[in-house]
Amino acid sequence: MNQTPRIRTVVNCTLLVVTLVAGATACGGPDGHPLAEKPYDAGDQVSFNGPSEGHKADPDKPLEVTVTDDGTRITDVSAVDKGGRHLAGELTADGRRWHSTAPLAAGTGYTVRVSTEDDDGAPGSRTLTFDTASPKKLLSVSFGPRAGTYGVGQPITAELSAPVADKASRATVERALKVRSTPAVTGSWYWVDDKTLHYRPQDYWPARATIEVRSNLTGIKVTNALYGAAAKPLKLTTGDRIEAVTDAADHSMTVLRNGEVINTIPVTTGKPGFSTRNGVKVVLGKEYYVRMRGESVGIAAGSSESYDLPVYYATRVTWSGEYVHAAPWSTGSQGSANVSHGCTGMSTGDAEWFFDTVREGDIVKVVGSEGETMTPFDNGFGDWNLTWEKWQKGSALHSGAPDSANTVQAARLRPQV
After folding, report:
1. 195 burial level (CB within 10 Å; 0-12, 13-18, 19+)
2. Strands 196-201 and 97-100
3. Which of 198, 223, 344, 362 could make a disulfide contact with 324, Cβ separation 3.0–4.6 Å?
4. What pLDDT does 384 receive?
5. Which CATH code, of 3.40.50.2000, 2.40.30.10, 3.40.50.720, 2.60.40.3710, is assigned to 138-238?
6. How confident is the model at residue 295 (pLDDT cuts 50, 70, 90)?
7. Nearest to 121 by CA among 1, 48, 16
């Protein structure tokens, strides 16, 4: 905003204050300072293109404030809605006209304070109020996961009620979705698809952090016909930093709490043809009992690979059915060979300990497997398998749109052992 007339006034008075210290008294106002004068009512000298009495403003039209008196100029305009958001605007060099440079929010009220100055430097003011019309179509946002305490690998999700495709509209949405953590971290949103965003820090969340998520999208214009709706805020906390690192080649799992090893467990992972996925996964949930059947993952009944087993202490890490679980039938191979159909198996006692130790959002990493790397978004939370540079490319505020290969919906499939 160009506010040259106001700046000139303040500088002049600063010089006069210095003169007063030297003993001079030549400055206007009761105490010798022109800004100490009570502003006169500039109502007859200021007009704006707001709605007529009893009507609401069209949020698609810019706000404009002008002076109607040749001897008056605008020095400042402040337009604030009921949510405390300031409306951006621009003042002409001659101080005759101010207009908004951002869309008005819909379904809210504005208070506009206009400051003026006449040819003699006397300050004036006028306060204007008006309401904007409610939007016809709303874009709502739902944050996830549910409130609670999670592991340091838990991403934040935002689900939109309508698709947002173009980059400018996506940028509007991103600017309004606020994530704050204590301690503070650097993080960014990633557009998984037109209706889904994930947020993660550059590194994992700090242990025992507080994370607050909110939306400032209410009333904000997203597309020509779509305005933001109010959203329920979300508050999460993180627990200790729990990391379970499985070395498939070494047939062992090392579990760390806040960087210190707390257990080393002999395990078995996926055998050839069913190799466990490499990479970072996040605990999705825990189930004391799961019935696992080969047919659910495409293994024909009656084949040599078919199975139908009761499984206990099952900690899920993918939607397609990869778990860390008790596998008492393979204790002879645990620590020495990989014989499962993709899950990480261990003794019942170790599985119970693991089940009781981890929570949703904890990190489960696999290295040394012949399997492919965990995909980012279509089979659980593989978000951490993207480098920070690639993650930022999924933000509309950074380096562009995500790769189309990654814009897929999560598949919720059946268990495998």
Report:
1. middle
2. unpaired
3. 344
4. 98
5. 2.60.40.3710
6. low
7. 16
Q: CA-to-CA distance for 66 and 126, rounded, in angstroms?
A: 12
Distances (CA, A) of 384 to 154, 200, 203, 401: 10, 8, 8, 18
Residue 52's pLDDT is 84
3-state secondary structure of 21: helix
How many CB atoms lie under 10 A from the CB of residue 101? 12
Q: Which CATH class is domain 4-131?
A: mainly beta
Q: Is 116 left (phi over 0), alpha (psi -120 to 50) or beta?
A: beta
Query: How far does Cα 68 stand from its chain's mean position?
Result: 45
User: CA-to-CA distance for 367 and 414, rounded, in angstroms?
Assistant: 23
Highest-pLDDT range among 5-14, 189-198, 407-416: 189-198
Rg of the chain taking only CA atoms, in angstroms: 31
User: Could you report the per-residue pLDDT of 362-390, keeping only the tens digit for each?
Assistant: 999 999 999 999 999 999 999 999 999 99
Q: Do domains 4-131 and 242-406 have the same CATH topology?
A: no
State the average pLDDT over residues 390-405.
73
Q: Which residues are catalytic?
A: 325, 343
Distance CA 341, CA 268 (A): 10
Q: Residue ranges per domain, the chain?
A: 4-131, 138-238, 242-406
More confident residue, 10 or 296: 296
pLDDT on residue 35: 53
- 324 CB neighbour count, 10 Å cutoff: 29
Residue of 176, 190, 192, 179 lying closest to 229 (CA atoms): 176
Dig out the tokens for 335 from the structure.
């620590």
User: Is the CATH code 3.40.630.30 the one for domain 242-406?
Assistant: no
